[in-house]
Amino acid sequence: MTSAPPRLELSGLSKSFGAFRALRDVDLTVGAGEIHGLVGQNGCGKSTLVKILAGYHPPDRGGRILVDGRALATPVRPRDLRAAGIAIVHQDFGLVREKSVAENIAVGSFTTTRWARRVDWRAGERRAAELLERLDATWIDPARPVSALGPADRSIVAIARALRTQRPGEGLIVLDESTRALPKDSLEDFYRVLRGVVLRGGAALVVSHSLEEIRRITDRVTVLRDGSVVGRSVDTAGTSEQEIARRMLGRVVERRVHNRRETPRSGPPITVSGLTGRTVREVSMEIGPGEVVGLTGVAGAGWDEVPYLLTGARRPANGSVRTGRASVDLARAHSRDCIAAGIALLPEHRIDDGLALTLPVGENVTLPRVRLRGRPWLIGRGWQHAEVTSVLDDLGVRPRRPDIPVGQLSGGNQQKVMLGKWLAGRPELLVLHEPTQAVDVGAREDILRAISETAERGVAVVVASIQPADLAAVCDRVLIFRDGGIDGEITAPTEDAVVEAVYAAPSPSPRRKG
C-alpha cells in the first residue's frame, strides 16, 4: 500500500535577481493534515518563496513545485493555483472594507443568474454562509460590511475566501504573516479556526516572524538563512525557540539586556504638560537627556495615543511640549512644528505612515531634510550620500543599496530605514511606537541596540509598546497607563514587573516599583 503524496512539495527551488541569489535549492514538504511553519530573518527569502508560489516571480530553471504529487507549471498561473487548491492569505488580508463579507468572499467568482446573467447576490450570501459554517464561525453575518468587523473576524473572512475553491478535506492555505495585524487577544480564535481546517484534512503553511507562534501552532518548521534551508521539517514540539533562533542566525542568541543603568546626562529635560486627547487626559511627564522612558498598559488605556499627540501627527485638545529648541503648543501645532523643535516619530505602521515605498532607500532617508539642507535650485548630493551611507552602515540595512525602492526590502530592513531616517536628523526627542513589531529576532536586536546607542548620545527617548521584553531591554523607567492617565511607574524594569503592573488592580495614586 503506497502512502499519499505530500500536499505541497518544493524541490530544488532557486531564484536569482541578477547576481543576487534570493533562494538556493530550497526543499520544503507539507503533508496533508499538517500545519507547517516557515521562518527566517527578514531578507532570508521567505517572501520570495511565497511570491513564487503566487506566480508573482518565476523560479530559476530546475526547481519543481508539486501539489498532491502533480507538478505545477512555472511560472505559476493563478488559475492553476486555484485548480490545485492552493490559496494565499497575505498579511493585510486583502479585504475591501466597504463591501460585505459575502462580496469579499466571492470576489473574482461571483455567481450569476441563469437568464439575465446578473450577479446573484443571494447565492453569494448562501455560499459565504456555508464557508463560514465550515469554520464554525456562524456568528459572522455575510451581509455585514467588513469595516464593521474586528480584526479576528476579518481574518476568518480571509480564510473563508481562501477555502472558496477548495473541497473539504483538501487544499493548502499559505498564511503569509497573516497574524501580524491581530491583537494578542484575537490570536486564539484565529488558531482555533486554522486547526479546524487542518483537522478536516486540509493543510497550512504558516510564514511568520514570531517564534512563539511557530512553536504554538505548527507541527513542523523549515528554517531559512540567506536563501538556503538550514533546518528542514524540524519537529517544533521538541525544539526550543532558542534552537530555532540559533538556526536562523547561525549563532547562539543570548537574552541581552541593552538598558543602561548609569546616570543619564545632565541638562534640561523634555517637558510634556497637560496632554489631552481622545483616550488621554491631562498627562504630564519629563524625559531627561539620554533617558529611555517606556509607555504601556492595557488596550484603550491611552498609552498608544501619546506618541501621535506628542509629535503633531494627531492634534490634541490640549497640551504642550518643551525641548531645548522650542516650546510647542500641541493643540495648534502641525507635525512640521514638532520636527523643527527636534521631535521625531517612528509610527507603528511603517507601510501606511512611515515610508514612501516606491521611492529609493536613499530618498526615504533624506526626505525630511531636503527642504532644510537643500536649495531651491540645487538639492545637493554630497550630504545625502553621507547620511545614507551612515544609516546603512550603522543599522546594518540589507541589501546595502540606496538605489532600490524601499518597498522591495524585508520588513525588518524597512523598519531600520524608517528609524535611520529620523536618527539622521539628530532629534532631541525620539518617540517610537512598537519599534520591533513584525521584525525577526536579528532585526529586533539591531533596533534595540540602536535605541540604546541613541540614548547614550544624549537623546531623550520614549518607547510606547505592549511588549514587556522590549521595555525591559531598553527602558530606564516604564510608565503604566490606566483609564487615560499615568497610574504607576517602574524603575529598572523587568519583564515580570511590567506584566504585573499592567494587569494589577488600579492604584489610588501613582506608585513606583523597582
From TrEMBL:
Q: CDD domains of this UniProt entry?
A: ABC_Carb_Monos_I, ABC_Carb_Monos_II
**Domain ABC transporter as annotated: residue spans:** 8-251, 255-508
GO molecular function list = ATP binding; ATP hydrolysis activity
InterPro entries assigned to the protein according to its UniProt record, in alphabetical order: AAA+_ATPase, ABC_carbohydrate_import_ATPase, ABC_transporter-like_ATP-bd, ABC_transporter-like_CS, P-loop_NTPase
Q: Name one Pfam family in it.
A: ABC_tran
- For this UniProt record, give its keywords in alphabetical order, as a comma-separated list: ATP-binding, Nucleotide-binding, Repeat, Transport
Name by which UniProt lists this protein: Ribose transport system ATP-binding protein
Record organism: Streptosporangium saharense
